[in-house]
TrEMBL record:
Entry-linked PANTHER family: HISTONE-LYSINE N-METHYLTRANSFERASE SETMAR (PTHR46060:SF2), MARINER MOS1 TRANSPOSASE-LIKE PROTEIN (PTHR46060)
Protein name: Uncharacterized protein
Record GO biological process: DNA double-strand break processing; DNA integration; double-strand break repair via nonhomologous end joining; mitotic DNA integrity checkpoint signaling; replication fork processing
Any one of the GO CC terms: nucleus
Organism ancestry: Eukaryota, Metazoa, Spiralia, Gnathifera, Rotifera
Organism annotation: Didymodactylos carnosus
Source superkingdom: Eukaryota
């Protein structure tokens, strides 16, 4: 069991044939196991605390350690896990638990446990992108709907097209729609289609939304949401 593998012995054979008789390990790329130390652990924690959306690549570029070291620090030393591309602690603080409970109670009361018609005014996603190709310069513009947290809107949804930080167009849909629903269920059908101009793309988008989604589609989206609110309250704000 202690003998070297066949592949290792074969490598030695080839090295000896090239008159390389050294028994020392050759220098190689990569980082030593000592990359996981108190200094790098604190540095990784600081990066994630500053931006919970940080990626392995960003941390690796910043600290110069391998992804395996980052993975070990995050999971073995910092007790974090990934939820929707955001690093969150396994254990919530008492204040965080109370916030979850209070939000669920307020929402259950405001929307009568999901029975209120105001449920259809809820925008649940925090961000969604629709990509179009700009023919003039082969760059990509996008439509972006941004909400920092669940918002409650009484009338209409407005989306703005942004390209290089400049807002080009505003769109107002005739009905309130759940972003995640119409994106996953309908807007992806437009993927790969090339439009000659902005208006053609916007018309296709509005048609996809208005023709495909029904009121029942939206209601079904929220049924599980209110069930999860009840579970959150029963779990005293813990993950479940």
């Amino acid at each position: 069991d202690q003998a070297p593998s066949d592949r290792t012995i074969l490598n030695w054979y080839h090295e000896f044939q090239r008159n390389n008789l050294s028994v020392e390990d050759a220098a190689r790329s990569g980082y030593p196991r000592t990359a996981v130390n108190d200094e790098t652990i604190d540095a990784v924690r600081a990066i994630i605390e500053d931006d919970p959306h940080s990626t392995y690549e960003q941390i690796q570029d910043s600290l110069g350690i391998t992804s395996s070291s980052i993975n070990s620090i995050i999971h073995d030393y910092s007790n974090l896990h990934e939820v929707c591309a955001r690093w969150v602690p396994h254990q919530l603080t008492d204040d965080e638990k109370q916030f979850c409970i209070q939000f669920c109670r307020d929402s259950m009361e405001r929307f009568e446990g999901g029975q209120s018609r105001r449920v259809f005014d809820i925008i649940t996603a925090d961000e969604s992108w629709l990509i179009q190709q700009q023919k003039s310069n082969q760059k990509f513009g996008c439509h972006k709907l941004i909400y920092d947290q669940p918002k409650f809107i009484d009338t209409k949804v407005q989306a703005s097209q942004a390209n290089g930080g400049d807002f080009l167009h505003d769109i107002r849909f005739n009905q309130v729609h759940t972003i995640g629903t119409w994106w996953d269920g309908n807007c992806k059908m437009l993927r790969g289609i090339q439009f000659n101009d902005d208006n053609a793309m916007l018309n296709a988008l509005e048609q996809a939304i208005d023709n495909q989604l029904t009121k029942d589609d939206f209601k079904n989206c929220f049924d599980d949401w209110f069930i999860r609110m009840d579970k959150c309250i029963d779990a005293d704000g813990q993950y479940f």
